[in-house]
Amino acid sequence: MHASDDRLIVPLDVPTALDGLHMAERLGDSVSFYKIGLGMLTGGGLALADELKTAGKRIFLDMKLFDIPATITAAVAGLCRYDLDFLTVHGDPSVVRAAVQGRGGAATRILAVTFLTSADRADLDCALIRSGDLRTLVTERARRAFEAGADGVIAAAEDAASIRALPGAEGRLIVSPGIRPLGAGADDQKRTATPAGALRQGADHIVVGRPIREAPDPRAAVEAILTDIAGL
Ligand code: C5P
């Protein structure tokens, strides 16, 4: 059995705070860092963030905010009252700058989303994103987000090395979703990596949801991941 490792972030992608609480209880002290996302916004997500924080857990609120700067600043200022560890916004420089302003002196780290890990080039074409390979665009978007003051980025593990190599990346965080332990299905993620693989490629944190939540024994699934990353 391993001690928890806050490089592993488990998303509570369940409908209500009560479901989230049950899952956190089930995982017990094997998990120290939880992500609460949009799916639980109407199900008591912020109350759950408060509750888990009081229980000593770290909280990543994954809101992927995108709006005009004044609204972003106001939203982030309000959310930072919840003593969050990480908060996501889209990586557009104006959005990142407004979020950093809203965060003020709070300890919340602002993380920028480059492109969703579920997106591939065909999806970018649909969104009228300029041509070029995905990694080049992701890296450029990360560079601009760092320049605007982001404390880190969300990025697929396979892009972590090129982001880590950016001159502005020192001291910034790379958080990678789309993680699949060996043998797990990809679900809707198009660009996946194993837990250890992602850390080796330069990620500081990995987000692992369905492979844990849908496992017959979620705690055993966490233990297997902790074994995979131990010593790295
Ligand atoms: O179940 P799975 O491990 O695919 O969950 C990944 C989590 O990471 C989900 O909560 C998803 O919203 C989030 N995420 C992502 N890709 C991003 C940003 C966040 O999959 N670029």
Q: How would you characterize this protein structure?
A:
This protein has 232 residues and is α/β, with parallel strands linked by helices. Helices cover 39% and strands 16% of the residues. The chain has 10 helices and 8 strands. The chain has helices at 17-27, 45-54, 69-79, 93-103, 121-126, 134-147, 160-164, 195-200, 210-213, 218-229; strands spanning 8-11, 33-37, 58-65, 86-90, 109-113, 152-154, 173-176, 205-207. The protein has an 8-stranded parallel β-barrel. The longest helix has 14 residues, at 134-147. It is globular, with a radius of gyration of 17 Å. The model has no long low-confidence stretch (mean pLDDT 95). Bound molecules: cytidine-5'-monophosphate (C5P). Cytidine-5'-monophosphate binds at residues 11, 13, 37, 62, 113, 116-117, 154, 177-178, 187, 189, 207-210.
Main features:
alpha/beta, 8 strands, 232 residues, binds cytidine-5'-monophosphate, 10 helices, single chain
Determine the strand fraction and express it as a percent band: 15-25%
Whole-number mean pLDDT: 95
**Helix/strand structural class:** alpha/beta
Show unreliable segments: none
Number of helices: 10
Distance between the termini: 17 Å
Strand order of the largest sheet: 1-2-3-4-5-6-7-8
Shape: globular
Helix percentage: 25-40%
List all distinct small molecules, including ions and cofactors, that are bound in this structure: cytidine-5'-monophosphate
**How many DSSP-defined strands?**
8
Order of helices and strands: EHEHEHEHEHHEHEHEHH
The value of Rg in angstroms is 17 Å
Report the biggest beta sheet as strand number plus sense, adding barrel if it closes.
Answer: 8 strands, parallel, barrel
